[in-house]
Write a structure and sequence with these properties.
Number of domains: 2
Number of strands: 12
Oligomer: single chain
Organism: Streptomyces lannensis
Distance between the termini: 23 Å
InterPro entries: Acyl_CoA_acyltransferase (IPR016181), Bact_Acetyltransf (IPR050832), GNAT_dom (IPR000182)
Pfam families: Acetyltransf_1
Protein name: N-acetyltransferase domain-containing protein
Keywords: Acyltransferase, Transferase
Shape: elongated
Strand content: 25-35%
Helix content: 25-40%
CATH topology of the largest domain: Aminopeptidase
CATH superfamily of the largest domain: Gcn5-related N-acetyltransferase (GNAT)
């Protein structure tokens, strides 16, 4: 029988949690400095987590960590960690811990439950909707460019139209993933873009690209260099709808990888929103591994 007991002192769990995260982040090719930056962000958010020891007949077999907080006026729960030791997997402890976490959060008024996965969990969270994935790949050598595709810097005249379309696309991604309402997504878009590129095209450490074939514009790109030590973050690599299905998506990835190396970084990272299976498939085929995947479910959970 699976048992749960709240921990009064979490240092042993935190050491184990950080060890597992460090191994997961390193496995996808992030350098030590980038891994430490990601861990710093995690540490900053775990102070309010409630951690329970998972036990079987008095023997500790794992941990589960939960928290409930306000998220844009809605109480939302989060499973911050759920781990069962390898020797004790496959005995139902994972499912029991998931059910315990859902009940714990629902009892405290949560109307939604989020989880951020950093490793395989089988079918345990299949009923949860995918909100987004963070993917990355280490780039060891310049990519082979696709014949005929040229990536050039965006001009000041091209920037306003690109900026407007990027904001619209960002809102659409957020809403499609189920993260926010359309009104909330617009407010988030306004706030995020103001912080990310306050100087527009002149914002330092950003690359704004236009992709062309035979002088015709087929797409755009936006990358932030030094997002983490040695890591470029791809905010957008976009192929216009009428030019899709011709292999240009991979050409856009190659352009992003070239810009990454030119800026002195050695890894490229992306977020892909839930519901965008085409992009997920592209990133998988290009060797971009999932660092973490965010999922959610509405509470109370249906009986299905």
């Amino acid at each position: 029988m699976t048992e749960f007991s709240l921990l009064g002192e979490n240092s042993e769990w935190q050491r184990d949690f950080e060890r597992r995260l460090r191994a997961s982040y390193s496995a996808v090719g992030l350098g030590a400095a980038a891994v430490e930056h990601m861990l710093e962000d995690v540490r900053a958010g775990i102070g309010d987590w409630t951690v329970a020891e998972i036990a079987d007949a008095g023997t500790r077999v794992g941990y589960v960590a939960v928290v409930v907080a306000d998220d844009n006026g809605t109480l939302a729960g989060r499973i911050g960690d759920l781990c069962v030791d390898t020797l004790h997997t496959g005995r139902g402890h994972e499912r029991a811990a998931r059910d315990w976490a859902e009940g714990w959060c629902a009892e405290r008024g949560a109307r939604r439950l989020d989880i951020r996965l950093t490793g395989p969990v089988g079918e345990l969270f299949d009923a949860y909707c995918v909100r987004g994935q963070l993917r990355a790949r280490r780039i060891s050598s310049p990519p082979e460019p696709l014949d005929g595709v040229i990536a050039r810097p965006m001009t000041q005249a091209e920037y306003p139209e690109w900026f407007a379309s990027e904001k619209v696309a960002y809102v659409g991604d957020i809403v499609r993933a189920g993260a926010l309402s359309p009104e909330e997504a617009v407010r988030k878009s306004d706030s995020d873009f103001a912080k990310l590129i306050p100087e527009g095209l002149a914002t330092p450490d950003n690359s704004f690209l236009v992709l062309e074939v035979a002088g015709e514009r087929i797409g755009t790109g936006w990358l932030k260099h030094g997002y983490l030590p040695g890591v470029t973050y791809g905010y957008s690599l976009y192929i216009q709808e009428e030019h899709r299905g011709k292999g240009y998506g991979r050409a856009a990835m190659a352009a992003g990888e070239q810009a990454t190396l030119a800026a002195g970084d050695s890894a490229l990272m992306f977020t892909v929103w839930g519901g965008n299976e085409v992009a997920m498939s592209l990133y998988t085929s290009a060797g971009y591994e999932v660092i973490q995947e965010s999922r959610f479910i509405e509470l109370p959970r249906s009986a299905a």
